[in-house]
Amino acid sequence: MQSDSLHLTKRGIFIAHWAIELMAGLLIFLMISGMFMFSQPNIAMPMLNISSFLTTWAYPCLQIALVIGIMLTMAAPKASGVAPWGIACLLITMATNIWPIVVYWRDLPLSWLGSMGSGIAPFAQAILFTIMLLNLAKWILLTEQSDDLGNPKDRQDIDQWNKSVGGLQTLLALSLVFFSLLCGFMFLPNLQTLLFRMFGMSTMILPLLGVFAVLALGAGFSRQVYRFNRLLSSKTDPTTNQDSSWRQVPQDSLRPSIVLPAVLALASYAAYQVANYSMAPAYLQRQLAKMKLDFPLGTEPSATDTSIGTQSPNLTLKTMAGNTLELESLKGKTVVLNFWATWCPPCVKEMPDLQRLSVDMADKDVVVIGISNETTDKLQGFINANNITFHIVSGDGWPSPYNRISAIPTTYIIDAQGTIQDKFVGARSYDQFRTAIEKAVANPTDSDQNKTDF
C-alpha cells in the first residue's frame, strides 16, 4: 500500500471529532448556566459571562475547525461514499449562516431566527459526520472482505470492523432519536406540556435530561471515533499492515469538488459574522419598535404610558430588617423605584449601577428602592453576595400603576412632590438613570398639584 494513504482523512477525523466534542462541552456549559439562573443566580451570572465569551470567540473557532475537518475527511477515495455526506454537512453550515442574513435583510420577525445556529445545526453536523464515518467504515470492511479469508489476521480485522460499523450504526440511531426529540421540543411547545402532564415532570427536569443526554451521546461518540481511529491507523501504517487488498487503496486527495464547498462554508460564516456587527443592531431596533416594547434603546419613556405625570400612590414597604417604610415618608426626596427579581439577568445586570447611584446621589436626597416578590431569604442571600446597601423589599399586590407591570426590570423615577416623572422598562445604565434623576431633581412638579396619595 502507499505509505501516505488516507493520511488527510485521518487528520480530518481528528480535527472534526474534537471540534464536535468541544462544541458539545460548550452546549453542556450553557445548559448548566441556564439551570443555575433559576436556582442560584449569584453563581449563574459569572457563568453567563464566561458563556458569552465562549460563544463569541470559541464557538466560531470550533465551527471553522469543523469545516476544515469535514473537508479533510472528504479527501477519502470516492468509492468510500464519504464526500456526498460531507457536502451535505457543509450545505447545512452554509444555510445556517446565510439564513440570519436573509432575516436581517428582509426584516423578518424575530421568531424566524429560531435556534438553528446554537441548537439544531451542531447536532445535525455531528449526525452527518457520524454518517461519514459509517460509510468509510463500511467501505473499509468491504476492502477487508476482498482479502484472503483464510488468513486468521484478516478474519480478526473483519470482526473488528464489523464491531465498528455496528457501534456507529447504534450511535447514529440514538442520535437521530435525540435529534427528533430536540426538534420536537423546539418547534412543538405543546409537546413539552404534554410530556410534563403525562410523566409529572417539572420544567427543571427537561434541561437536566438534556445535559445527561448530551453527555451520554458525547461519550458514545468519542468511544466510537477512538475505536475507528485505532483501526484506521493500523491499516494506514506501512510498518504494521501487510494486507494485499490495502496495497491497492488509492491515495486520498483534496479534489476541487470538496474544496469549493468548504471555502463557501467558511465564506458564509465570515458573512454571518459581518452581518452580526453591521446589520443585526439596526434590525433588532426595528423589531423592538414594531413590537412597541420600551427596551433600553434610549432614555425617553413610552409615549403611551399614562402613569407619567401622575401622582404615585403610597406604598407600605417592609425592609429586610423587618422595618416598615412608607413611600409617603420620603416626600421631599427623589425616589428610584425598581421592580426586579434575582432570576432576571437584565435586573441583576443593572444592580451595580443602582448601588452606585444610591451612594453617589445620596447627598442629593435620592433614595433607591428595589421591590421583588421573592422570599426574604432569597433576597437576603443576593444582598449579601452582591454588597447591596440600598433598600430591598419583598412584596406584591401593589396599587395602580404598579399592578400593571408586564416586564422586569421596570423602574419609576418619582420626584420630591411624589409625581412619577419617568418610567423605564428594561435594564438601564448608570448614566441613563442619572440623567433621568437629575432631570426630576431640577424640574420638580408644582407642589400644589395632585397632593393626594403620596
In short, what is this structure?
This protein has 454 residues and is of the alpha/beta class. The chain is built from twelve helices and seven strands.
Radius of gyration based on Cα positions: 30 Å
Major sheet size, sense and barrel closure? 5 strands, mixed
Which shape, going by the Cα principal axes? elongated
- Kindly state the percentage of residues in helix: 55-70%
Contiguous uncertain segments of 5+ residues: 292-303, 447-452
How many domains is the backbone divided into?
Answer: 2
Strand order of the largest sheet: 5-4-3-6-7
Number-wise, the strands total: 7
| Class by alpha and beta content | alpha/beta
Continuous helix count: 12
User: Strand portion, in percent?
Assistant: 5-15%
Key structural traits:
454 residues, alpha/beta, Glutaredoxin, 2 domains, two-stranded antiparallel ribbon, 7% strand, disordered C terminus
Structure report:
It is a single chain. By secondary structure, this protein is α/β, with parallel strands linked by helices. It has 2 domains: 7-288, no CATH class; 316-442, 3-Layer(aba) Sandwich (Glutaredoxin). The protein is built from 12 helices and 7 strands. It has helices spanning 7-39, 41-73, 83-106, 116-145, 152-187, 189-199, 205-236, 256-278, 280-290, 345-360, 376-386, 430-442; strands at residues 316-318, 324-326, 334-339, 366-372, 391-394, 410-414, 420-425. The N and C termini lie far apart (91 Å). The model is unreliable at 292-303 and 447-452 (pLDDT under 50).
